[in-house]
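tool_call: predict_structure(chain=1)
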Amino acid sequence: MHFATDPADTDTYFQTQPNTKGYNLTHLNAAYDLCNRIYVDAMVQPLRLCSEGRALAAMVDRSPIKSKTIVIADRGYEGYNNFAEMITSHVVISQMDKRHQYQVNFTVTVHVCRHFLRSRDDEPPPDVEALIRKNILPIRPIRQGQKNTRKIRYKSAVSFVYRVV
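tool_result:
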């Protein structure tokens, strides 16, 4: 979305050539209900900081929809992590004991969703919600003197261009 020019806003300001007038751009992410023909949620992000995946996850978290839903999205919104986020928002985790709160294991959830999406017609699909419910992790509080650091190994993104003819 284009709006009034403000060179001080570095997250949205673009100038294509040194001697030309610049412009500001933002990115609109919207959730639309096809049946009722209304927008149910929207998120505006600065174009330099836009992330369609994070926007979709935020809109799913805020969504009041509890029934079965079909989500249609274009490139940028796809991803097993987003699919897992949508499913886990509706999984009820029973608290087994009083010592810990429990959370979804997203690593297992992404693999379960991937298996579900790749399943063929000749084999029955897995019960995704039951598998997610089965693989939960305790949330342990941070002890005194313990740092809240995670050992994360980054992987480079792999993308491809496709064309439908």
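agent: Residues 1-77 form one domain. Proceeding to next step.
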